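ugh ok so i messed up the first submission bc i forgot one of the chains. this is the corrected input, ALL of the components this time, i swear. 1014 residues overall. if the numbers dont match what u have on ur side tell me asap before i send this to the collaborators (the ones from the other lab, u know who)
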Amino acid sequence: MRKILNLFRGRRRELERDLDRELRYHFDRRVEDMRAAGLSEEEARRRAAIEMGGLEQVQEEVRESWSWRGLDDAIRDARYAARSLRRSPAFTATAVLSLAIGIGASAALFSLVDQVLFRLLPVREPERLVLVDWKGNSLSDNRGSFNLMSYPICRDLQRQDSLFEGVFCRSAQMVDLATATGGKAEPVRAELVSGTYFPVLGVSAAQGRLLDEGDDGEPGAHPVVVLSHGYWLQALGGAPGVVGRRVLVNNFPMTVIGVASARFRGIDIGEIPALWIPAAMKRQATPGWDKLLDRRACWMQVFGRLRPGLTAAEAQAGLQPWFKSMLDEDTRREGFPPVSAEQRAQFLASTLVVTPAGHGHSPLRRQIDQPLQVLMAGTLLLLFLASLNVASLFLARGAARGREIRTRLALGASRRRILSLMLADSLWIALLGGSLGLLVAPLVSRGLLSFLPTEAGGVNLSSGMDGRVFAFAFVVSVMTGVLCGLAPAWRAAHVPLMDWLRERTGARGGVRLRKALVVGQLAFALVLLVGAGLFVQTLTRLVAQGPGFPTSGMVSFDLNPLRAGYAPADASRAVHSALAEVRSLPEVESVSVAGLNLLSGGSWNIYMTIETDGRFVTDRLVHLGAISPGFFRTLGTTVIAGRDFDERDVPPPGADGSVRAAIVNGAFARRYFGSASPLGHRIGFGNRPDARTDIEIVGVVRDFSYRNLREQSEQAFFPFGSDSPAGMFYVRVRGTPAAALASIRTAVGRVDPILPLLSVRTMDEAVDRSLTTERMLATLSGGFGLVALLLSVVGLYGVMAFVVTSRTQEIGVRMALGATRRAAVWLVVADAVVMIAAGTAIALPCLWAVRRLVEAQLFGVHAIDGPTIAGASLLLALVALAAAMLPAWRAASISPTEALRFE
Amino acid sequence: MPPERFPIPQGTLDMLVLQILSVGAAHGYAIAQRIEQISRNAVQVNQGSLYPALHRLEQKKWLRSEWRASETGREAKFYALTRAGEKQLAIEKESWDRLAAAVRLIFAQGE
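and heres the new structure output, hopefully the right one now
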């Protein structure tokens, strides 16, 4: 703003200087000419000065021609509009509030959408970052979220330096971190990264130095870590001497070499890591699962920084020749798995896909991307509805101000001036509404964030409003301002002057436009109401369905002694001792241990081979779980055919892969055995031709939810090995979970006080958490629906009240001529019925158009659902009719004589 | 008896300036001189209204201006007609002709 002013000032000075020179030139020439004609210097100057008629006056007149007419007028209009708005506080308040709701909601949503979907990573030239992903059958063992690659392929890609300036890989993991020797370890988020991570991203250090290639060489030889700025402040109080400090990662000593810059919070927008560990330290960071140099172990995401001027598509094309030869080489490498000819062909047909990744990599984004888009569409609809409401209010005001406008026009004001006056009005309202909306937005935003899952570490999203949100709110305010002002301005510009002068006609035309606006409002409100109905039903259906087992009184936690530095044999002993300790507690009804994290969104899955009459491979991934005998009883579900596991099924220690028995769920049995019994048939892991099918199906268990409440999946369960070094405990407790958990902690502490209970939660919490998206959609769309209903009904009421006022005389005449009161009411209500019907008729195709957007978010109900649409329409119609009834009734209650006197 | 020198009638200065400049670019002093010369000193240009008029016409984009050396060698602000200015001149000439013809007609009737 100041810049613009200065610009004006500079220009002004220049103009003044020029004018001065110009007039001086004139004066000097005049003096010269007069002297040439024989006058003395003094006399010539005197006469010239008189002729010029006062320099000051000339300058002043010239300056007047510079003054920017448009700007002056605009300022005058703005002042006038402000005064007139202040004189009608009720109108102003209603209009400002309507817009504040719309703008506040959309600013809050935009803030979230911006952070999740649009914002680039705070690193050097994020637009040059790309993700490199494998497309096709990689024949690998995948562990992690998605876009998974192996560490060796990242190394290979680093040599493609004609395409990439640098390549790095990373994997998000949980580790136990103790920042002081002897201190209690806490589970924290960590990123395992290649040495190229920080240099390629271009992140700087706040303290010490960051990891580089020298820290990621020989496996196990680089016990160093970098802390995130947030963790350093929060857990260590920003201690200055942190560099060189010894910390324990999974009870393994490592040294802090630095703290990353405060701006950088990892490349996953959903999660802030506490520390970064070199990938070379994988064995220590993920105990019990090394495979760092295994080409078929995929657990990291690979990113590259493109050479300047290259596009992702060019890099992708450039990679293929090398990748083809690498695939070919891989098949001849030692340790390449034996596969069928078909699988081998699939492997060789794989390609690499390169996509822009300036926004980082985020499971959270994947989860809430679509719901956020749905909500953003909803808020924009709400905002539009609010604008229509305000436009309608302005039209009413325009009608009320008819006399003023007529006077102005009669006095010769141009149509453009009237238009700008009206726009000034609506812009004021919009800016006020926008400012108020921005005040409300952080509250809405905080509410929104509270819906998101916030497991350990917290979500890296803020409810604060930044410059981008302000810019968004400003643009939206101006746009709505223009939108609101458009209708009245359009009328001012299109109604002929004569119609304005004939007072009545003007008012009529306004009503027609206002009715059209109300129809639009009703249509939008119906769309939002139907949306709310669908999402609320989705949530209630999921809650009613439940996970398929009773959740109350059920707690679960993870015990992983490996992360406390145990050797595998000691770890499995500790797990079993803990199991015995917990089982002996009076608060515990039953307890089972499993290699299975229910309702966490994660899964252990694989294709399986089934032997029946012939041999075939499952067409979908089968979700797996390792469970101890009695697990189903603890969970509260039942084995519906065959038997549960017993101690004989548990593989003895050291007998790796000697699983002999399996229990499948109902869905598995139905999909692969139809109505036949699966009992006694044999299955095996994997889909390779050499997969051993020596596992007998001994039971079928009732279906229950695995990853989340929505998904129906085929599941197979195996006995939990007696030598498993870690396990998830499922405990059915007596009394409150909180009290029981306290005893459980003590009981586990008796095994070893340094063992932390990880991912502690009650099943109710787990169910809640798996429904966050659905709850967010249901709550917000419900709120939107109600606000929309309110706004549109207020709009309808306003128009009907106006119509009734202008028709009071007519109604009076009709009643004087013998019309019944009911007929009089109907006269008015019929109008409303037509509007409601028209709104509904417009809403239906809109619903059809947006069905794709919402379909994926629904459960147990379709986007085009008859009962929901009928219910929403009925609700809208009833409320709207009630609103129309009020003024109609009032009109019909006036005595005819009074009505006839009415002006 | 009419005075020796007329002040320029209200509203016609703009037209005269445009006409002078249609011949070629000139600075303010030259414009004033030329109006007086061509009208054989019958019309007197008041500098107090010439410069505001020039600036007004420039704001309306009928004129453009630039500083360059004048006949005396000193820098002066030269004004020239724009395409829009040419059009405007044609319009003003035509309406002036019609007005003058009308006035003449009225006087002829009265005699």
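quick check: DSSP finds 26 helices and 25 strands in chain A. that seems consistent at least. Residues 554-734 of chain A form one domain.
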